[in-house]
Write a structure and sequence with these properties.
heterodimer, A: about 280 residues, alpha/beta, Rossmann fold, six-stranded mixed sheet, B: about 300 residues, mainly alpha, ABC transporter involved in vitamin B12 uptake, BtuC, 11 helices, about 5% strand
Chain lengths: ~280, ~300
């Protein structure tokens, strides 16, 4: 691991019963970079995400996250909300998980729980409307409005999140994750279900997030136009094993990747690999 | 007409008490999806703590009624909230990820623990207290029947309204309220955004217990008695109220509470007071058959 890496995954294995979803996987994600994790369906990409964000405890292996100030966190040892709170890892889901009954603004406010919690003196001061808490609440609303503005949904701030069209929900989920001020943002198929124009806009949004906030991004994506267009590095998984790693150009030219994945259309590739296994 | 007006007043006062307890049931159901059967006993504990605080205050010579009421209210809410927190911590949290029936069984057990604890520590006899809020107004009088609005009824309704306003502000406008609603919808996602779900659930129990303790205090003032077993029937009725209003819905709980209070009062007034509980529970059965989501409830959506 070099000093410029934010995330280091070492010898990660995850076994479910007799099935090895991820097998001895090692890779790194650069600080302030966009790293894509690609591979056919069932390659273990989401399992890796679930290990990083604490849903699964890895069978073996180490997941180390290093902040700008060199503090490091072993994610496999952090539980539950502490991964978001201490290590500052945020995540979005393949199937959108907004708080659909709450407004857009409220969704983004929940994401700022921790600064507000500190400012409210663990609820007590907040109840009495202490000035510090009011200021923090205003700052949180400003940040939420900033992100709503950025994803073009400021006009709908007080609508229920569940009433948004699909593409807007995707962007809202990203904005919500960004409101936690993450050091690492993990996006699980952010372009799924988007049309070509929306995918392009998504790519631009992700690039601008990286450019403006310096947040490191880790991305699972099937849409190759997005992956090739914005990634700094790509890690290719197949059957839980890393088969290639490199820049988009290297990956595009890698014969193993072409054979396994890119050369044919995705379903054919899966069928081929299942045939050869 | 006069008789009807009088029963309406009585029913609203009683319904306010049920409503405050029902909110605790519905909140807990909303956030952890279990029926906290010990909640009725938390209400009973609230009544006892109110009684004990009254006696202590009077014995140290505090007699100004508003001061006494305020102090008792604060002490009862704080102490009962602590009970609510403790019950969640020792009886429910360890079973959070267990099979679905486990916390419910634990809740029934906790209900027995609390009522038996009161029986052992406070005695099995009914405890009574002299009326603290007395007097009232005669609204109108016709044919020898006076419709009276007593001060205690005014106190109950005003306190309930004030608590409901504070409570809806808490749920709708504060960080804690947002966290609670977020946890209600998707606990995993809330945790991923850095929300301490366990702590939020604890706070739900604390708030529910505090509201129930106020109901306990009102019951004590209204009827002048408490006993270790009163939590059972009151709890089941408040649960009925929560189901009637639509379990998980906060306005529904209050509405259901008022409905149960009115049904019970009118039944006792016009038919038979022996069968008033039967009337209340028949409502539960009818609601479960014809309106399973209650008056304001949403249909249950199974989460993936």
């Amino acid at each position: 691991m070099t000093g410029s890496d934010i995330l280091e995954v070492t010898h990660l294995s995850m076994t479910f019963g007799g099935i090895r979803a991820v097998s001895d996987l090692s890779f790194t994600a650069g600080r302030g970079a966009i790293t894509a994790l690609i591979g056919p369906n069932g390659a273990g990409k989401t399992t890796v995400f679930n290990c990083i964000t604490g849903f699964y405890k890895p069978t073996t292996g180490m997941i180390r996250l290093v902040h700008d100030d060199n503090r490091d966190f072993l994610l496999e040892r952090l539980f539950d909300f502490r991964i978001a709170k201490r290590a500052r890892v945020a995540r979005t889901f393949q199937n959108i998980r907004l708080f659909s009954g709450m407004t857009l603004l409220e969704n983004l406010m929940v994401a700022q729980h921790n600064p507000l919690m500190r400012a409210s003196g663990f609820t007590v001061l907040g109840l009495f409307g202490a000035p510090g808490y009011r200021a923090a609440e205003r700052a949180a609303i400003d940040r939420a409005r900033h992100w709503l503005d950025r994803i073009g949904l400021i006009a709908r701030a007080d609508d229920a999140a569940g009433n948004l069209p699909y593409g807007d929900q995707r962007r809202l989920e990203i904005a919500r994750a960004m409101c936690t001020e993450p050091a690492l943002l993990c996006l699980d198929e952010p372009a799924a279900g988007l049309n070509a124009r929306e995918s392009e806009a998504l790519g631009e949004l992700l690039l601008s997030i990286r450019g403006d906030t310096g947040t490191s991004l880790l991305l699972i994506e099937h849409d190759m136009s997005v992956v090739m267009g914005i990634s700094d590095r790509i890690v290719v998984l197949d059957h839980g094993v890393r088969i290639a790693e490199g820049t988009p150009k290297e990956i595009r030219d890698d014969p193993r990747v072409i054979a396994a994945y890119l050369g044919s259309d995705e379903e054919d590739a899966v069928a081929e690999m299942e045939g050869s296994a | 007409m006069d008789y009807f007006a009088q029963q309406l007043i009585n029913g609203i006062a009683l319904g306010s008490i049920y409503g405050l307890i029902a909110i605790g049931y519905t909140m807990v159901y909303g956030i952890v999806g279990m029926i906290n059967f010990a909640h009725g006993d938390i209400f009973m504990i609230g009544g006892f703590i109110a009684l004990i605080s009254f006696l202590v205050l009077v014995s140290i010579g505090v007699t100004a009624v508003p001061v006494v009421l305020l102090l008792v209210l604060i002490v009862a809410m704080a102490t009962t909230a602590l009970y609510g927190w403790t019950v969640e911590r020792i009886a429910y949290r360890p079973l959070r990820h267990s099979f679905r029936l486990a916390p419910m069984l634990s809740a029934i057990g906790m209900s027995f623990v609390l009522s038996n604890f009161s029986q052992v520590s406070q005695g099995a006899r009914i405890k009574s207290i002299a009326p603290i809020i007395t007097g009232g107004y005669t609204l109108f009088e016709t044919g020898g029947f006076a419709v009276r609005l007593s001060n205690i009824q005014i106190f109950i309704v005003l306190t309930t309204v004030a608590l409901l306003l504070a409570f809806s502000w808490l749920v709708g406008r504060t960080r804690l309220g947002r966290d609670m609603r977020a946890c209600e919808q998707d606990q995993t996602m809330a945790a991923l955004l850095g929300v301490d779900v366990d702590r939020t659930i604890s706070m739900t129990f604390v708030i529910g217990a505090a509201l129930a303790s106020v109901a306990g205090l009102m019951y004590l003032l209204y009827y002048g008695v408490v006993d270790f077993f009163m939590g059972f029937v009151a709890g089941i009725k408040a649960f009925t109220a929560a189901v009637l209003g639509g379990i998980g819905s906060l306005p529904g709980a209050m509405l259901g509470g008022l409905a149960i209070g009115l049904i019970e009062t009118f039944w006792a007034a016009y038919f038979s007071s022996e069968y008033k509980d039967v009337a209340a529970f028949s409502i539960l059965i009818v609601v479960l058959i014809f309106l399973p989501t209650g008056l304001l409830g949403r249909p249950e959506v199974e989460k993936v």
